[in-house]
Amino acid sequence: MTHNILEVKNITRRFMPGQEQECIALKHVDIQIPENKLTILKGRSGSGKTTLINIMSTLDEPDEGEVWLKDRQFSLMKEEEKEDLRRYELGFVFQSVALIPTMSAYENVDFALRLAEFDGDRRERICEVLSLVGLGKRMNHIPGQLSGGEQQRVGIARAIAHRPKLLFADEPTGALDTASGLAVMKLFLELVEKEGISIVMTTHDPNLMELSDKVYELLDGQVVKEEWHERGKAGIH
After folding, report:
1. What is each CA distance from 213 to 47, 54, 219, in whole angstroms?
2. Is there a domain that residue 139 lies in?
3. Overall domain count for the chain
4. Is 116 in contact with 92 (CB distance < 8 Å)?
5. Which CATH number fits the domain that encloses residue 30?
6. CA torsion 67→71→72→73, rounded to 10°?
7. Which pTM was predicted?
8. Residue 203 near residue 181, CB atoms below 8 Å
9. What residues have CB less than 8 Å from 220, skipping those under 6 apart?
10. Which residue, among 118, 117, 98, has the nearest Cα to 108 in the 3D structure?
11. Cβ atoms within 10 Å of 3's Cβ, excluding its own
């Protein structure tokens, strides 16, 4: 039986780009994020997927509706509680990796663990996650010595090092070539299996859909399709 780690209920988000016209980015959205699965939010630019992932990760607030992480409702949490949630229980990967350029891969991950007040052997965990993303032999390289795909993998290692329950990835393959993008997807699937992480990612790349467990398609701020996939048939191992 599949359990949900996060539920979005009747979410609406409005923006006011000008004083005269209201823009509705999301309209009455309901979705369920299954635990220990890879879920994709699909949609072209302007469909509302980034706004949705920001609300799901407490980076933004809806005008209407509720978001639940297990038994916790975001709207009832204080800002300090949300900050603690982002620091200790959530992970974030973005299209712009934003590594600290003067720090090595090892030091970038270590910095993230310090911010998360990681309670454990930091060196062991850093080596573990960098090896997991295929960079065990390049952990002393700075970002300028790494390819775009390698930098993204450092970003993923940094995001999972503190063992978050839920990882959000906004267009993580958007700036990568096809081979690097598929490598990131394969890595995400390994994280689901080996680390027990639940992952939500956005993309507009149709080639990646079959590699996920679940897909929600958004159009003009509304969910227009929901699909479950069998990853064993996706052709990636």
Report:
1. 21, 21, 20
2. yes
3. 1
4. no
5. 3.40.50.300
6. 40
7. 0.90
8. no
9. 27, 46, 47, 48
10. 98
11. 11
- 200, part of any domain: yes
Q: List the chain pLDDT tens, one digit each, 237 residues.
A: 779 999 999 999 998 766 667 789 999 999 999 999 999 999 988 899 999 999 999 999 999 999 999 999 999 999 999 999 999 999 999 877 889 999 999 999 999 999 999 999 999 999 999 999 999 999 999 999 999 889 999 999 999 999 999 999 998 888 788 888 888 888 999 999 988 999 999 988 888 888 899 999 999 999 999 999 876 444 443
Whose tokens are 């609300």? That residue is 55
Facing residues of 67 across strands? Answer: 8
Q: Which two tokens stand for residue 222?
A: 């509304």
> What interhelical angle do 105-115 and 122-132 show, nearest 10?
120
- Which residue is listed with tokens 């897909």? 215
Tokens of 61: 């607030």
